[in-house]
Amino acid sequence: MTDLLGLAAIVPASAGACCTVGAWRPGRAVDVVAAVVMVAAMVDGAFGPRVLPGVLWFVVLALLAVVVAAVHRVQSASGASGASGSVGRPGSAPAVRVASAHARFGRLHAALGLLVMGALGVGMAHDPGMSGMAGVGVHGHGGAVAMTWQVVLGGLTVGYLLLTAHMVRDGIRRRTRALPVVETLAMGIAVAVMAAAMV
User: Fold this and answer.
1) DSSP code of 87?
2) Nearest CA-CA partner of 146 in 160, 127, 132
């Protein structure tokens, strides 16, 4: 059943990756790379033998999450400096427009999704490295480490799914373009299915 759910999670994740590619524009190349690598990690975990151990996939996805967050920070800083350089009419108040949840949290959602998927992939791995980790969990302090890992993973997953629900709800309420909403929803479904496979 776990393998079947892991396999089923690839479908919405692939749909989300296709939406990311479809919404590509200058400055989003790292998002496309991250989405493709994440689907590759899921496929590798579902169909054995694995090309890379689950732990190594987690490291790769975690590094991509850092890159996604860093690119977003740089782009936000350059956008803010460009906006501050613009001059409006004297005496006119600047127009205040609240950004959508996708505009505010889109990159955070992508980075957090990479971390969660990588961590869930480690939990579902059936490679020798994970067997060794499970063995450590039986003796000494390994049990506490395994329990802490589960708590952190559970917190990340719940936080990710709550953020997904908020972004989808905001997108529907604002009647924004369908592609970002479908991308967010598809990734949320993929994480929920992967999490269900861990239970």
Assistant:
1) -
2) 132
The contacts of residue 111 (CB under 8 Å, 6+ apart) are: 65, 66, 68, 69, 72
Half-sphere exposure of 141 (CA within 13 A, CB side): 1
The per-residue pLDDT for range 116-132, each reduced to its tens digit, is 998 888 876 654 444 44
How far apart CA 76 and CA 56 sit, in angstroms, is 30
Closest by Cα among 113, 15, 21 to 62: 113
Report whether 38 contacts 114 (CB < 8 A).
yes
Q: How far apart are CA 167 and CA 161, in angstroms?
A: 10
Show the DSSP H helices in 47-141 as ranges: 54-85, 101-124, 128-138
Torsion 192-66-43-47 (CA) sign? negative
pLDDT at 45: 81
**What amino acid is encoded at 91 in this protein?**
G
Counting DSSP H helices and E strands in the chain, the numbers are: 7, 0
Q: How many CB atoms lie within 10 A of CB 139?
A: 8
Contacts of 166 (CB under 8 A, 6+ apart): 101, 105
- The pLDDT value recorded for residue 2 is 66
Residues 6 or more apart in contact with residue 180 via CB below 8 angstroms: 19, 23, 102, 106, 171
